[in-house]
Specification:
The chain has 168 residues and is α/β, with parallel strands linked by helices. The chain contains five helices and seven strands, in the order H-E-H-E-H-E-E-H-E-H-E-E.
Length: 168
C-alpha cells in the first residue's frame, strides 16, 4: 500500500522499528469488519494502514492536540473515511469494545494504559503493543497476564519489541 505521512511533530513515519513491527502484525490478520482502536495514534499511520487493509471502524486517540491534528491531515491525505479521531487517553474510550487494540507508545505510557485496555476488550480482542525493549518484555508480559491477557507472539528488531496478546 502506498500511504503518505507528513509527520509534523508526531511519531510514526513507518521507519522506526516499533512501527514496522506493529505493521507486520497488522498484515498477519484479516481486518475485514473489525473495530480497532489506536491508542497514542501519533501521525495516524497504524490507523490508516488498518483502514487500507479492511478495518470497518477505527478510533484513533492521542493526548496531544498536535498529534490529533496531524492524524486528521494524514487521514485526508490518504483518502480514509472510517477513522474517528479523539483527543483523549484510552480512558476516554471506556464503554466501547474493540476487536483489536493497538498501542505503540513509550513503556511508561503503555503501563499506564494496561488497565484501560482490559476495559476495552471483548471475548476475542487482540492487543498489540510496542515501544519498549526486549529486556522489558518479561515485565510487560507479567503485568498483562495479571490483567487476563495471554501472550500469543512477539517480534523483535534491533532490540525493540512488539508483542501480541489475546484476552483470556
Amino acid at each position: 500500500y502506498d500511504i503518505i505521512i507528513k509527520p509534523e511533530m508526531s511519531f510514526g513515519t513507518g521507519h522506526h522499528e516499533t512501527t514496522q513491527l506493529m505493521i507486520d502484525f497488522l498484515f498477519e490478520h484479516n481486518l475485514e469488519n473489525k473495530k480497532i482502536c489506536d491508542v497514542g495514534c501519533g501521525t495516524g499511520i497504524l490507523s490508516i494502514i488498518a483502514e487500507k487493509i479492511g478495518a470497518s471502524e477505527i478510533d484513533a486517540v492521542d493526548i496531544e492536540i498536535n498529534c490529533i491534528e496531524n492524524t486528521i491531515e494524514n487521514i485526508d491525505r490518504n483518502n480514509c473515511n472510517r477513522i474517528n479521531t479523539k483527543l483523549c487517553s484510552s480512558e476516554g474510550l471506556i464503554g466501547n469494545t474493540y476487536d483489536f487494540i493497538l498501542s505503540n507508545i513509550t513503556l511508561n505510557n503503555l503501563k499506564g494504559n494496561f488497565k484501560n485496555f482490559k476495559n476495552l476488550t471483548n471475548q476475542n480482542t487482540i492487543l498489540i503493543v510496542s515501544g519498549f525493549y526486549k529486556k522489558n518484555l518479561k515485565n510487560v508480559n507479567q503485568m498483562l497476564e495479571n490483567l487476563g491477557f495471554e501472550l500469543i507472539k512477539f517480534k523483535t528488531k534491533n532490540n525493540w519489541v512488539a508483542s501480541k496478546y489475546c484476552c483470556s
